[in-house]
Design brief:
Elements (H helix, E strand, L loop, with lengths): L1 H16 L5 E6 L4 E4 L1 H7 L3 H4 L19 H4 L2 H8 L3 E8 L5 E13 L2 E11 L13 H8 L10 H18 L3 E8 L2 H8 L1 H17 L6 E6 L2 E6 L4 H16 L3 E3 L2 E3 L3 E8 L5 H17 L5 E5 L2
Helix pairs in contact: 8-9, 9-10
């Protein structure tokens, strides 16, 4: 009877976990996935039938840190938790089924029964959850947002990012707070369009834009500048912090891929960034970032270059 009650309780808990608004999955000691809840699918794009019975390191989530280190190979928090029984937390970037990288906060816990480790559980949630509309009514604010949004990528459009840059320059004039500006360009984008067609080119833009956005802090801003170019405003006046951010963008794109059918293509970006410490014309700033981006192209692409504007 006790065993029957235990099974009933276990089934009830699993049913509850299916609807928790946080990704949850269990692995056994061989790191085989035995449970995958609905919110894990919501965050990753992978359904339970696609992952249950597979090893967590078998080309599914492929966690990396901001330096591009593959944690599933040598630094998996879930694996280490099973080894030493310690709970862990980490900020990582998982690989979405669509190919882009998603920033998540991870918590891992060991699972024991009568002193024996049965496996571990990982809970993960997005650092930047996708906002949901409260209702179906269209407001003036909704229309304003739509007017400032690039319809293909969902990022801010050129009007949005130019307005944000003007606001940053006003703040700099009033409060002496510097900031970073980065120009990002997709490498060999014309080749992608010519080889695979514009549908795949659009998919590449969407995938890369999501990875770029997930590499940024909550106070940073990104907009599609035009074509395959993006302009990024980095909310920091520290050169080292700006360099770290643009490197994180480059690495996350490099570890993403454009997927459709049998196609699984990796794209890269070239980035140029500047630190702005005094008021100046927007055109001067953008031109300087653009020139540094072209240096990254000339040095072989998939690179970043940075300078502090005088």
């Amino acid at each position: 009877m006790k065993e029957a009650q235990r099974m009933e309780h276990s089934e009830r808990y699993l049913e509850i976990l299916k609807y928790v608004k946080e990704g949850v999955y269990f692995v056994d000691t061989s790191r085989t996935i035995t449970f995958w809840n609905d919110w894990a699918e919501n965050i990753t794009g992978f359904s339970a039938p696609e992952v249950i019975g597979r090893h967590c390191y078998a080309n599914i989530l492929n966690h990396i840190d901001e330096k591009g280190t593959h944690l599933c190979i040598g630094g998996c928090p879930l694996h280490r938790t099973m080894e030493d029984g310690q709970e862990r937390t980490a900020s990582v970037f998982l690989h979405h089924k669509d190919g882009n990288r998603v920033a998540v906060n991870v918590r891992t816990f060991p699972v024991y029964e009568k002193g024996t480790c049965l496996g571990a559980v990982e809970l993960f949630s997005q650092e930047k959850p996708v906002p949901q509309l409260a209702g179906d009514l269209i407001t003036i604010e909704d229309l304003r947002v739509l007017a400032m949004t690039d319809q293909l990528t969902g990022l801010g459009n050129r009007r949005f990012i130019e307005s944000a840059l003007s606001e940053k320059l006003t703040q700099l004039k009033e409060f002496k707070t510097g900031f970073g500006v980065a120009m990002v360009d997709i490498d060999h984008f014309k080749t992608v369009n010519d080889t695979y067609g514009h549908d795949i080119g659009d998919l590449a833009l969407q995938t890369i834009s999501r990875s770029l956005e997930n590499a940024l802090g909550s106070d940073d801003r990104i907009g599609r500048w035009g074509g395959e170019e993006f302009l990024v405003l980095i909310n920091s006046e520290e050169a080292a912090s700006i360099v770290q951010t643009i490197e994180r963008m480059r690495i996350l794109v490099e570890h993403s891929s454009v997927k459709r059918g049998t196609l699984d293509r990796v794209c890269t970006v070239s980035i140029g960034a500047v630190l702005v410490q005094r008021p100046m014309e927007k055109e001067t700033i953008i031109q300087a970032a653009d020139q540094l981006m072209y240096q990254s192209k000339q040095k072989g692409r998939n690179q970043t270059h940075f300078a502090t504007l005088p």
